[in-house]
Amino acid sequence: MSKKTIEVVVNGRTHRAEVPARRMLSDFLRDDLFLTGTKRGCETGVCGCCSVLIDGEVIKSCLSLAVHADGHEVTTIEGLAVDGVLHPVQEAFVNHGGLQCGYCTPGFIMTTVAMLNDNPNPTEDEIRHGLNGNLCRCTGYVGIVESIKAAAEKLRGN
Amino acid sequence: MNKPEISNAFTTVGRETPQINAIEKVLGKAVYSADMKMAGMLHAKVLRSPHAHARIVGVHTEEARALPGVHAVLTGDDTPTRMTGIHHKQHRILAAGKVRFIGEEVVAVVAEDEETARDAIDLIRVDYEPLPEVFDTGEALRAGTIEVHDGSGNLACEYNVVRGDVDAAFAQAALVHEDSYETHSQYAGYMEPMATLAWRTSDGRLHILTSTQTAFLQRMRIADAVEMPVSKVRVIQATVGGGFGGKTAEECNSLICAWLATRVDRPVKFVNSRLDDFQGCRSSPPEKIWIKMGVDKDGIIIAKEVKIVADCGAYEGLAGHVLQVSTVRSDNMHRYLKNVRLNGKLAYTNNPPHGALRGFGGPQAAFALNSHIAVMAEKLGLDVVEMLKRNAIKSGDTSVHGFQIGSSGLSECLDQVSDGIGWDSKKTRPKDIGVKRRGIGFGTAIHVSGNREMGNWDGSTVIAKMAPDGRVTLMTGECDMGQGAFTMLAQCCAHELNIPLSQVTVLPTDTDMSPYGHGSIASRVTILAGNAAIKAAREVRERLLTLASEKLGVPKEDLDMANGEVFAKSPAPNQKIPFGDLARLHIYRAGGEALQVTATYDPPTFLAMATPEQYGNVAPGYSFAAQAAEVEVDTETGQVRVLETFVSDDCGKALNPLAVHGQTCGAAVMGIGWALYEQMRYEDGRLLNGNFADYTMPTADSVPYIQSGIVESMEPNGPYGAKGASETAIVPGAAAIANAVYDAIGVRIKTLPITPEKILAGLRAKQAAQDASGASR
Amino acid sequence: MKDFDYLEPASIAEASEMMLAHPGGSVMAGGTALMLALRQRMVTPSHVISLRRIRDLRGITHTPAEGLRIGALALHAEVARSPLVRQHAPMLADMASRLANPQVRNQGTIGGNLCYGDPATDPPSCLLALNADVVLRSARGTRVLKVDQFATDYFATALEPGEIVSEIRIPPSAFDAGYHARFLRTAAEHRPLVNFAVSLRKQGDACEDVRMVIGASTRVPTRLRKAEDWMKGKTVTARLAAEVADLGASEIEPISDIRGDGSFRRDMARTACRRTIEDLFNPAGSAATSAA
Q1: Which DSSP category does B304 fall into?
Q2: Which residues of B574-603 are buried (b: 16+ CB within 10 A; e: fewer)?
Q3: Which of A38, A48, B758, C150 has its CA 20 to 30 A from that of B773?
């Protein structure tokens, strides 16, 4: 089995690990670092449950090999809250019906964090277009859109 | 149980309340089945049949067994000979002898890791002898056709229901109209693929942590299939990433994983890939529906005849129940309908098996019925909303099939939707004549809240325990798969004890510890478990007051409780005592015990499904919904865009409006998906699009902002007047959209889904008909 | 996915050598497409040769004489927000900003897209309409191909063993307007059913020069040469747009699959073509804002 040693900063902590070349980034996060908030929902790169940030940009960790994260900074859902205080996007998803079963939620939240970094005041159309890479079966997207509007407002206020 | 007066300092009843487990979910800390790990855990994968109907001639597993890291390679011959299934026990845990659909599980591998298991799967060779196949229900039911199950004639089940004098009623009708409709199969599409972790302990017991809506039904089914006493099997509900009917007792992931754990000495985890999930799931049964309806001159529906042929697929599962619902339920929306003749047939085919899905047969029937009513309203020159209202069943009515309607807000739903979408002005505005044309349409729905269909019990039990710190823990046999059931139970309990919601914990179902429950099906949990939770909390309240009365020397009538304390209403100083003190006192006294009560609510309903007449009050409450959709049809591309939609759900009392709106919006979007975007594409029984790139569920930018309204009809049997709210809103949407398409372009789509190709073909046919009639003049 | 050896060459020459040494290997750029194939075991390479450490494959530059040079590893998101691309090939930036979804735009590369040869994507038709050059390098030297020479068939390219795409060049253009229209079968689809790309030079209401391409519904992006000839030098009216679209639709050989049969695809290609031309010449009331 072909293995590689990688050094990657995940949620602010540096990890050195020897990983099989075929290890997906999503599996590395889940199985090696026990960060199971990043989910697997499909094999076709469509559902977005595995979305994480690499150097601040949102990607699908199931479309990336762990070795590709070598030398980069990864942020997962577990890295958003600071000292137990929810990130405004997390808080908004709680309060505005942004989640039900919760399985797609980490992916939507990571996508939202990146979206609002690029565009702090998105229109509803921009929000919906920006969610093209994430699927939710529970909410009908209304609660998610409301959550993102609320989070954007709060983040702009800060 | 009805207690509409809600004045309680700490209550959340009727208020927008985030789910009690929302924070762990946004933190990524909620534990789903696939997130669990155990020391020594192995991983399973299955090899599925590439044939729709074939004899298994030989299975060659030597190479796979020899692969390093492989612990077991098991075939159908290794499984217990006992058959498994819901009513008809029709297959083994892995296929033995024969396969009957493409995707049927044939061989299972257990290995050190998932990739090794997958490597081993690639090394297995199975020899098949193909058998003749049947995919069409009409062909399947023809005499002399190849049989999917020997001696069945491919007829899985049949319903015949006749009430009143249908022929006489048709003879009296001012208008009679008949037509045929077809619906297609929908995949549950929960974001969490099925996943299970199973292990045995040294006492010989089998433990199964899984993603399920019905933990106790799984236990019963698994124990039976693996030939173990029920008491030796334990099913634990993990956090469930959506169910939508797909995670009930039909799914096979947990069954296979459980059995594998009996065959190896280490824990086994089996996580479906999305393709596994598409191939192994039970999607909704496609139905061919013929309706003949008679109405009087005022549009009152007086006679109805329906014939349905549904595709069961290879194994029956719950498809028979689904068909029963399609056949019977929608009649109960119409208060003057007394004459019906219904026939439903379920046909075995070599398609993948169909079964339970949100709405459970309701969406199929509602598509046909609401399309049909729109046609008849137009023929009568009647506004369809007016016609629907004239026929709408009312509180206090008993319907044609014996449903006792304790509460119906159907008329109010129609009014709310009509106002919300601006029906009158949109209906009367000049028709668009350009390339893009707008239209508007309506649909209505009835759904049950609970359904007496198993044994003669449709009850629910809740155990409430008060810890020595005064906090309450609830245990239930029902499941939360994201819909917010646990939050609802906590709300009921907190309301009764007048404590903050944070003081209540609801434990996930564990069949070793939780009270028995059928599970989260048939929109039953709010009305049944909600009532049980109230009953349990009231008993706790009573015990606290009794004990406090003794301790404080104050008569019970003079005591009340708030924020975790019992206090005397008269303003004497220090006359109060915390719940924790009372809970300790409940134990630490001669003859004491921990404060724990068990309460059961079994509704006053009738097991109609077990009788050939199918007559009687099956549910303690019935939910209703209406939906209007405004669409824009692009006449050059055939694309249909839903511009606006308004859905009103009569859920009795909205215990948690945030959750009700969430259910309504989610269900409405699932309905839009079924009507416009989703289609399981089969070619000779082979699913061609078993992935999310090709099976296209609605995305955020493919649907409008769903406008969701609540009608509170206050159900007398409901907890604080509540009924179920999780399925109703998937029922009316497809018809609303089809009716809107007709309004826009004059083309009636009678076969779902409404695709661009069908729109364009319809427009061409319409043009050809116009040209022909023009030419003949 | 099957086990493989993972290689990270530091230069194009080294990559080329590795590819020749491991003929059963696969080259990985952004990985968005290859990862899917690997996970589903549709491809089972002995080696995965990742190009991510090769600096020469990155960057976006522009010179007045040679035009734009876009490194093959440029992410779609980088193409979308590059000031140089937005200035010199706005329709390319616009296309890249709408392609797929945010995550894939942050992971997929323009070169990787071309090399995979998947017809159901947006960049190839857009690049062909921009008359782009695909630069291929190997130990043996450099070749420069047009997009329609590079894309040879369904999932097939002109790449020879040991060759990699190093950059895309977009020559200075005599065109002053253009648009890439992405047509989805339904709003819930993830991939284009058909796309239509056009570059043109306007003189008032007339079209002086034009390049038009249909993609996604054809095995390879297809130039609409008859339609171009018919349109050149004419005043663009609704009728001309319809004639051009009819001609264009007749020039393609549409594929048929579960996402759309050939005749439906041809109809949609015709509609996309006509609507885009109408929008470009009569922006009032148009849905598509034509960047130029």
Answers
A1: E
A2: ebbbbbbbbbbbbeeeeeeeebbbebbbbb
A3: B758
The 10s digit of each residue's pLDDT in B708-747 is 999 999 999 999 999 999 999 999 999 999 999 999 999 9
Mean pLDDT computed over B501-512: 98
* B688 in C contact zone (CB under 8 Å): yes
Whether chain C has a CB inside 8 Å of the CB on A122: the answer is: no
Residue type, C172: P
pLDDT surpasses 90 at B95: yes
Mean pLDDT, to the nearest integer, of C88-94? 97
Chain B CA closest to residue C186: B639
pLDDT digits (tens, 9 = 90+) for C166-184: 999 999 988 999 999 999 9
CA distance C18 to C25: 9
The closest CB to that of A139, out of B34, B665, B697, belongs to: B665
Query: Chain B partners of C187 at a C-beta cutoff of 8 Å?
Result: 639, 641, 677, 699, 701-703
Per CB-CB distance under 8 Å, the chain A contacts of B241 are: 39, 101-104
d(Cα C178, Cα C201) in Å, to the nearest integer? 9
Tell whether A11 is within 8 A of chain B (Cβ): no
**C141 exposed, middle or buried (CB, 10 Å; 0-12, 13-18, 19+)?**
exposed
Residue B275 has pLDDT above 80, yes or no: yes
Contact A127 B32 (CB under 8 A): no
Task: Verify whether the Cβ–Cβ distance B700 to A145 is below 8 Å.
Answer: yes
Give the single-character DSSP code of B346.
E
Domain of C25, CATH number, reads 3.30.43.10
Angle between helices B410-421 and B384-391 (to 10 degrees): 160
What is the rounded average pLDDT of the residues A100-116?
98
Identify the three-state secondary structure at position B333. Answer: helix
Q: Per CATH, which fold does A88-157 belong to?
A: DNA polymerase; domain 1 (1.10.150)
Helical H segments across C159-215, by residue range: none
Nearest to C36 among A43, A111, A132 (CB): A43
> What is the domain class of B22-30+459-601 according to CATH?
alpha beta
> What residues of B are in contact with residue C271 (Cβ under 8 Å)?
636-637
pLDDT of B775 over the 90 cut: no
Phi, psi of B613 (to 5 degrees): -75, -25
CB-based contact, C35 to chain A, within 8 Å? yes
How many angstroms away from the CA of C9 is the closest CA of chain A?
13
Cα distances from A94 to residues A25, A122, A147, A148, B460, in angstroms, run 27, 20, 8, 11, 29
Indicate the domain borders of chain A: 3-79, 88-157
Residues of chain B neighbouring A135 (CB-CB closer than 8 A) = 191, 692, 697, 699
Domain enclosing residue C156, as ranges: 55-170
Percent of chain C predicted with pLDDT > 90:
93
Encoded amino acid at B600, one letter = T
**CATH code, domain with C241:** 3.30.390.50
Chain B interface includes C41 (CB < 8 A): yes
Q: Do C41 and B122 touch (CB under 8 A)?
A: yes
Is the ipTM higher than 0.85? The answer is yes
**Strands, DSSP E only, in chain C?**
5-7, 26-28, 47-50, 60-63, 67-71, 133-138, 141-146, 151-153, 156-157, 164-170, 177-183, 194-203, 206-215, 222-223
C183 with C264, same domain? yes
Cα–Cα distance between B500 and B10 in angstroms, integer? 5
CB proximity A43 to C under 8 Å: yes
Q: In the CATH scheme, what is the code of domain A3-79?
A: 3.10.20.30
Encode pLDDT of B297-330 as tens digits. 999 999 999 999 999 999 999 999 999 999 999 9
| Structural element, H or E, at residue B463 | strand B460-466
Q: What is the CATH number of domain B39-360?
A: 3.90.1170.50
